[in-house]
Design a protein that fits this description.
The complex is a heterodimer of chains A (342) and B (132). Chain A is of the alpha/beta class and 342 residues long. Chain A has helices spanning 5-8, 22-26, 32-41, 52-55, 64-77, 100-117, 130-143, 160-172, 192-200, 205-215, 221-232, 239-246, 248-251, 288-297, 319-338; strands spanning 13-17, 47-51, 80-85, 121-124, 146-151, 180-181, 270-274, 303-308. The radius of gyration of chain B is 14 Å and the shape is globular. Classes of the chains: A alpha/beta (342), B mainly beta (132). The A-B interface holds A 19, 22-23, 25-28, 51, 53-54, 57-59, 87-95, 97, 125, 127, 201-203, 238-241, 243-244, 250, 311-313, 315 and B 3-9, 11-12, 31, 35-39, 41-42, 75, 78, 81, 83-85, 112, 114-117, 119-122, 124.
Chain lengths: 342, 132
């Protein structure tokens, strides 16, 4: 029997990011421990990712009590901390941008927080230049933690900011420096529910069609938001409507699953972005059937956080159900791909 | 009321039951229209209407964790963090005491995510408040 990557790769692990439960959290329906307990109760681990500035009051300051309690919760609920999502708040002071040294000082306590809480990986952001990441390497080495910026729409592995990091990384060659792909970069359409929301709010149809036309152009995604702004300018549309439509260029961009292949060895964590499912349980704008085998066969063995972002425009939907559907889809795809019984 | 686009936080921007309209003015319980905590330096209440009429925000103050800030002071507050589950109170003086009964308030709040420097996130939300 020939051994194929599909058959022999150990495969990645599933989990959730608390970002999926943004509505529940923002509405104060769930506290931090409640969310963790519910993730465990519904079997949506084993990985658990949190956004420091969302979940933790006073972040990045972490008290000894909080850290101890968090570790107890992970053990009690049999969850594994997968990634701490941190932020490069370069424009914290409106009208100015942090210098490299200021950014390093801003990131350091967030890395310390990850270490104190027991996270093996950190999701950082491209808002910080590559030099910041390189300067933080000694701190990452001290704690044995991996860090990588999220490759998110409208970026792809060959976008200029990503290439800058790839070139900087090549000079230091550290396994602790990598990337966090977000599957929203390789979509084939915008979710029907997203477009329905625009129509329900009476956004002019000709503006919706214009935005969709630009979104589907076979051009670099980073250019499209500007192109939409150029095409809409002479139409004198309401600024709030234009702003609402511009969001589509930053949440999902067209791309092929294969685009991830060249950086798979440097992937330290993954955001399994999703919005909605069809009647068969397939994601309606992202082809998981194509993407997951790329990561499986490419030897990725880390966590994929199920990241529901439909909360941007959907309410009255059970986010935990959405994550459960996402993980069921992932299991079906991998079972089919590896020929294993599901 | 004129149509305005609602994002996912518009309907929870103002909490009517924790807001007041009195002879002293408006005290609006405002929620951060974002998924993570941010400092006061990157938020700005930008527009207010009561019963369809624009109300100036010149004398408005934001009450956060027991301290009050004028709107002009907000951009400096990089150390005052608005936790995502918390409210702040927006105090706005009114030119005249409001008539008894229902009043429709529409608040617009601009937010500048510090990690997405090109983005301005505009949230408009409304609430009906009762004056005694």
């Amino acid at each position: 029997m020939t051994t194929t990557p599909a058959a022999t790769a150990p495969g990645f692990k599933l989990g959730s990011t608390l970002y999926s439960f943004t509505n529940e959290w923002h509405d104060r329906r769930f506290g931090f421990e409640d969310l963790i307990a519910e993730v465990a109760r519904r079997g949506l681990g084993p990985g658990l990712e949190i956004i420091g500035f969302s979940s933790i009051r006073g972040f990045p300051a972490i008290s000894d009590d909080f850290a101890a309690r968090f570790k107890d919760l992970m053990a009690q609920h049999q969850l594994q901390p997968s990634s701490l999502a941190i932020n490069a708040d370069m424009a914290l002071q409106r009208g100015s941008m942090m210098s490299v040294d200021e950014a390093v000082a801003y990131h350091a306590p967030q890395i310390e927080a990850a270490a104190k809480l027991g996270f093996p990986a950190i999701r950082s952001q491209f808002a910080a230049p590559a030099e910041v990441a390189i300067k933080l390497l000694p701190l990452l080495e001290k704690h044995g933690i991996k860090m990588g910026p999220e490759v998110h729409a409208p970026l792809n592995p060959n976008s200029p900011p990503v290439m800058a990091y790839r070139e900087a990384y090549a000079k230091v060659n550290s396994p602790l420096l990598g990337f966090v792909p977000d599957f929203g970069c390789c979509a084939f359409a915008l979710p029907a529910t997203y477009i329905e929301n625009l129509r329900r709010q009476e956004l002019p149809e000709h503006l919706i069609q214009l935005a969709l036309e630009v979104w589907h152009l076979p051009k670099d995604a980073g250019w499209k938001r500007q192109e939409f702004a150029r095409r809409v300018e002479p139409l004198k549309a309401d600024a709030a409507d234009v702003s609402a439509l511009s969001v589509m260029f930053n949440i999902l961009s067209p791309g092929q699953a294969e685009m991830w292949k060249e950086i798979i060895p440097q992937v330290i964590h993954v955001h399994g972005k999703f919005y909605d499912f069809d009647a068969e349980g397939n994601e309606t704008s992202i082809d998981y059937g194509q993407i997951l085998p790329v990561f499986h066969d490419g030897g990725y063995t880390g966590f994929i956080s199920s990241e529901w972002e439909g909360h941007l425009y959907m309410r009255g939907v059970d986010a935990f159900d959405m994550v459960a559907k996402h993980q069921a889809l992932a299991r079906r795809i991998i079972a089919r791909h590896t020929g294993a019984a599901s | 009321m004129a149509r305005f686009f609602k994002n996912n936080f518009s309907d929870v921007l103002i909490t009517p039951q924790d807001s007041r309209i009195t002879a002293q003015g408006l005290a609006l319980d405002v929620r951060l229209p974002w998924y993570r905590s941010l400092p006061l330096s990157v938020v700005m209440p930008s527009e207010l209407q009561v019963d369809g009429q624009a109300v100036p925000l010149d004398g408005a103050t934001v009450e956060h964790e027991g301290r009050r800030y004028t709107l002009a002071e907000l951009p400096e507050q990089t150390g005052a963090w608005w936790f995502v589950q918390d409210s702040v109170t927006l105090h706005v003086p009114l030119a005249a005491a409001p008539a008894a009964g229902d009043h429709t308030v529409v608040l617009t709040l601009h937010l500048f995510p510090p990690y997405i420097p090109m983005l301005t996130w505009v949230t408009r939300g409304d609430a009906v408040l009762q004056a005694a």
